[in-house]
Structures are given as C-alpha cells and as structure tokens.
Amino acid sequence: SISEPLKVMISGAPASGKGTQCKLIVQKFGLVHISTGDLLRAEVSAGTEIGNKAKEFMKAGSLVPDEIVTAMVTARLSREDAKEKGWLLDGYPRSFTQAESLEKVQIRPDIYIVLDVPDEILIDRCVGRRLDSVTGKIYHVKNFPPETEEIKARLVTRPDDTEEKVKSRLEIYKQNSQAISSTYSNIMNKIDGNRPKEVVFKEIDLLLSQVQQDKVNKTKLE
Ligand code: AP5
User: Fold this and answer.
1) CA 18, CA 20: separation in Å to the nearest integer?
2) Could you report the predicted ipTM of this complex, rounded to two decimals?
3) Would you give per-residue pLDDT tens digits along the chain (222 residues)?
4) Does the annotation count 169 as an active-site position?
5) Is 8 helix (H, G, I), strand (E, B) or coil?
6) Which residue out of 53, 137, 158, 195 is catalytically annotated?
7) Whole-prediction pTM value?
8) Quick check: is 125 catalytic?
9) Residue 111, number of CB atoms within 10 A of its CB
10) Domain containing 101: what range?
C-alpha cells in the first residue's frame, strides 16, 4: 500500500524565508504549494470580489479578515491535486481562529515548521526584496541580485515592504504566533532561518524525509 502524502505547514515572521524555502521544498517533494499571500495577491491583481475586499488590508500590512482567507484555503486544500500529491501550506494559519478552523474540519499537518530569524534582519530582507514580475522568482538587492539586466529591469517591489509596514506586520506576527504554536506544539520544529538558504533547506529536507519515512513505516504496520 502507498502511504498518504505529506502535509506540511510552514510559518515564520515576514521575510523569514518561507517563500524561498517553499520553492526548494516543492522542487524536491512535489507538494502543492498553497501560499495565502500569493493567492490573495493573485485575487487582487485579477480584481475579483475577494481581491477587492483584501486589497486595503494587505496594503496596510494588516491581516485580511479570517472568514475570507479561511474559505479560500479550505477550498484550495480540498482540490484533487492537494489530496493526491500532498500540500505545503504557507502563511496560514495566522491567527488562533484560523488554526481552530482547520482543526474543526480535521485538517492537520504532519509537521509544523517555524523559521526563526532576528527582527533587524527581517526588516533588511523585506526592504531589499524584489520579485520578478514574469516568473515570480524572489530576489534581494544585496543577498540575491538578479542574474541579468533583463530581469533587473522587470523587478517589482511589494507595496507592503516599506520599513514602517514591515514593523507592523512583524508586530501582528508576534501577537499571534504563540497561540498558533500551542495548537501544533507536538509537531513543531523551530529552524534557524538566519543562515544561507541552502543550509536552511538541508535541515528542512532531512526533517521532511524523516516524516515521509515514518509515514511509510506506519502504513506497512497497518
Ligand atoms: P505573505 O505573502 O504571506 O507575507 P509574509 O508572511 O509577510 O511573508 P513574506 O512573503 O513577506 O516573506 P517570506 O517568509 O515568504 O520570505 P521570502 O522567502 O520572500 O502575506 C502578505 C499579506 O497577505 C499579509 O500581510 C496579509 O495582509 C495577507 N495574508 C496572507 N495570509 C493571510 C492569512 N492567513 N490571514 C490573513 N491575512 C493574510 O524572503 C524574503 C527576502 O529575504 C527575499 O528578498 C529573499 O531573497 C531573502 N531571503 C530569503 N531567505 C534568505 C536567507 N536564508 N538568507 C538571506 N536572505 C534570504
């Protein structure tokens, strides 16, 4: 028998490297990446009803109301590809209420990863972040400059990446993180995210491989 696919949650302050690590995790483990930030930004640029509701909250660096985000996430998680390949949930839950919503419908990850990075580094990472408007690839003006002049010319800055807004996003994260962690304390793994991205990924890779192996072994016993 085949074991059930991996279910992973990744959390961490703004710019702790969630998006960067998710790209590497997807490459290796083939999970469906569900980023609430990316989903919301897509709704905003498509001008949908959800996007119009979310827009001002996001621009201000505050949280979008729980019911909007929860409906979006549960719909995405219940799609066939996520059930088949497993999922990697990035940026959700972000409040105790959101964590409870998932518990209520019995959606639970196998592992809860938290990327830990000091505040002053987070601010620098946000302010220096640039996104490729064509591929969505994540760059940083100092840490990961674009490879070519062509890419450089099409880089964009997120409207919520100013120092002031990053500080308020960080504050909101801190207010919520403990309550969320309490829901997942038995499967929580804190990782030092203030190291080169390949080093951080190596640790995540080991953890996920172990969880995957445990699931296979468990299936064999059943
Ligand atoms: P979201 O898009 O989730 O933003 P976030 O949590 O603030 O996270 P970021 O995308 O800023 O950072 P990241 O951790 O992915 O870091 P990255 O890899 O890019 O949410 C945006 C908004 O949407 C929220 O404010 C809210 O309004 C709304 N929203 C989303 N989810 C919601 C929810 N559940 N409920 C309500 N509202 C919600 O890296 C950052 C930078 O650092 C990059 O430049 C990168 O190149 C660099 N970097 C990465 N790793 C390293 C490394 N190891 N060393 C050096 N530099 C690195």
Assistant:
1) 5
2) 0.96
3) 477 899 999 999 999 999 999 999 999 999 999 999 999 999 999 999 999 999 999 999 999 999 999 999 999 999 999 999 999 999 999 999 999 999 999 999 999 999 999 999 999 999 999 999 999 999 999 999 999 999 999 999 999 999 999 999 999 999 999 999 999 999 999 999 999 999 999 999 999 999 999 998 988 887
4) yes
5) strand
6) 158
7) 0.94
8) no
9) 20
10) 7-117+170-193
